[in-house]
Design goal:
Layout: E1 2-4, H1 6-13, H2 19-25, H3 28-32, H4 36-39, H5 66-78, E2 83-87, H6 91-114, E3 122-127, H7 130-139, E4 145-149, E5 152-157, E6 160-165, E7 175-178, H8 206-210, E8 219-223, H9 226-235, E9 240-245, E10 250-255, H10 262-271, H11 274-281
Parallel strand pairs: 1-9, 2-3, 2-7, 3-4, 7-8
Antiparallel strand pairs: 5-6, 8-10, 9-10
Helix pairs in contact: 2-5, 5-6
């Protein structure tokens, strides 16, 4: 069941008062090689051509969007995230790496001694382009990122047509970032239907397939991909709190259930605090 909760949206951004200031404080512009004089206001959404993201011949990387990237960095830091599963990679991968390094420095001892996190302070990034993985790996050296190449196929979830990566990393994330795959890459079709059409849109079901493995407190963030977010919202079967931030065009889902056991409860208390349990009780 999906719940709406105003305190969830407030809690997500609590402490993030000024995006430009956050970018400067964490030197995200330098990390990403962005010249702020050319870029402009880091808190303002960059508007692209309507056909920019649906061009199958586009070979260049999307330019950095500092407003979105600073929010992602903030979520990892403020929620003390230990393990990230990222669908699609790029500049977000670099930002995740930096945030996880900082989390590791601050929280490694506590996590090792008190929590059950086998992939602590790791970002597992999945993509269906080997050349793109190589480019990101070569251009932005990272310490906390594990890259995973996978082919992509058309499939279905409860008879709804969608796409799946053929191989996923076997990890238990506390943050999932959905920014891939593109709509033009899957092989095959279902009843003649494929996402490989400029009027279609990405429709990934990987999160639905692993939903029953996720721990209470897990956060899902989708970058745009509103049709895909609505597909998730319609088909997720456990209890989630949902928020769509229209200004950033990002969708957020938090798995809002009672803890599974002592280690999950410790993790929630440490990472999310009492506010999580307040949201749980006020759904």
């Amino acid at each position: 069941m999906i719940f709406s909760n105003e305190t969830f949206s407030q809690a997500l951004f609590e402490g993030l008062d000024d995006l430009s200031e956050y970018v400067a404080d964490n030197q995200l512009d330098e990390l990403l090689g962005v010249n702020l004089k050319d870029y402009g206001d880091a808190s303002v959404k960059q508007i692209k051509s309507p056909l920019y993201s649906v061009n199958p011949d586009l070979l260049e990387a999307f330019p950095a969007e500092l407003d979105d990237l600073s929010r992602l960095h903030f979520f990892v830091r403020s929620r003390k995230v230990t393990t990230i599963l990222e669908f699609g990679l790029g500049k977000s991968t670099v930002v995740f790496d930096d945030a996880l390094k900082k989390n590791k420095t601050e929280f490694e001892d506590y996590v090792a001694n008190n929590l059950r996190r086998a992939n602590g302070f790791e970002c597992h990034s999945v993509d269906n382009y080997e050349s793109w993985i190589a480019e990101v790996r070569d251009k932005f050296p990272t310490d906390r990122v594990k890259f995973h190449y996978s082919t992509l196929s058309m499939g279905s979830f409860n008879d709804r047509i969608c796409t799946y990566y053929d191989q996923l990393p076997n990890v238990c994330p506390d943050l999932i970032y959905l920014d891939g795959p593109d709509q033009f890459s899957p092989s095959g079709d279902v009843h003649g239907v494929t996402t490989n059409h400029p009027d279609r849109m990405p429709m990934s079901a990987d999160i639905l397939a692993i939903e029953h493995f996720l721990l209470p407190g897990t956060l899902i963030v989708t970058d745009g991909r509103t049709a895909n977010a609505r597909f998730l919202k319609t088909n997720l079967q456990r209890d989630w709190i949902y928020h769509h931030d229209r200004n950033s065009d990002q969708h957020y889902f938090e798995l809002s259930e009672t803890p599974l056991g002592i280690y999950n409860e410790r993790q929630i208390e440490f990472c999310l605090g009492a506010a999580y349990f307040e949201r749980l009780n006020n759904r």
